[in-house]
Amino acid sequence: MNEEYRYEIKFVLSEYELLESFRFLKSINAFKPYPDRDVNSLYFDTIDFQCVKDNLSGISDRHKVRLRWYDDIDNNVFLEIKKRVGRLGSKDKYSIKNLSKRKILEYNIDEINKKVFNYFHKNYQFNNLLNEYYIPILFVNYRREYYESDIFISNEHKTDRLRVTIDKKINFRNISLNFPIKHYNEVIYNEYIMEIKFPIYMKDEVSRILKSFSLTPKRHSKYLTGMAKLGYVTYI
Fold first, then answer.
1. What are phi and psi of 37, to 5 degrees?
2. Under a CB-based contact definition with an 8 Å cutoff, are residues 43 and 66 in contact?
3. What distance lies between CA 77 and its chain's CA centroid?
4. Which residues does the UniProt record annotate as the domain VTC (predicted)?
């Protein structure tokens, strides 16, 4: 499943700024389309950490690869290729059906890697973004709140959906190919991450709404933040 490009604007929030974000959500009559849920991501990179290098270098057109599953819904596990051009993002999503989330924590990382890419190359058309050899690098887990709001776009004379997520209780784990995911202890990250997602033509309307609040967008990557917390890179 492939998504169209859309704006994805992130905010790194302190406890005080979190209160401001709730003021913003209230002002746009945001509602919760479904309950909070736990998100798990296993990030992959090339042997020479090309995804890390592209992000740190500020390359506009870049991508990252992750395996994702959710604790409290169905048993599906997905390989996702997250693509970015500046603040625009999209995602290619592929179901990996030979891997059950109920057993994923039991496998060694190397076994997960083989299962994912053997299934992908056998069942999906070739994606040139995966023409390098990728290995698992970092595991991330967090609790996500979901909000949505219907916004009227005056210059388009129509209403469209604004989506907001707030991530909390973020933690990272180092990983090793010869051990399961939970071999290493969690490293806690105490900030909150809010992300606002909307179609490109909603930019002016969303900018107008945000001007009334003390919320400053900030470039942020959980992958790079985790790598920094574990001491692999310097990332502010």
1. -150, 160
2. yes
3. 15
4. 6-230
Whole-angstrom distance, CA of residue 210 vs CA of residue 53:
31
Can you read off the two tokens belonging to residue 99?
């891997």
pTM beyond cutoff 0.90: yes
**One-letter-per-residue 3-state SS of the chain:** CECCCEEEEEEEECHHHHHHHHHHHHHCCCECCCCCEEEEEEEEEECCCHHHHHHHCCCCEEEEEEEEEECCCCCCCEEEEEEEECCEEEEEEEECCCCCCCCCCCCCHHHHHHHHHHHHHHHCCCCHHHCCCEEEEEEEEEEEEEEEEEEEECCCCEEEEEEEEEEEEEEEEECCCCCCHHHCCCEEECCEEEEEEECHHHHHHHHHHHCCCCCCCCCCCHHHHHHHHCCCCCCC
User: Any idea which architecture 6-229 has in CATH?
Assistant: Beta Barrel (2.40)
- 12-44 burial code (b ≥16 CB/10 A, e <16): ebeeebeebbeebbeebebeeeeeeeebbbbbb
Residues 6 or more apart whose CB falls under 8 angstroms from that of 122 comprise none
Supply φ then ψ for residue 100, to 5 degrees.
-95, 135
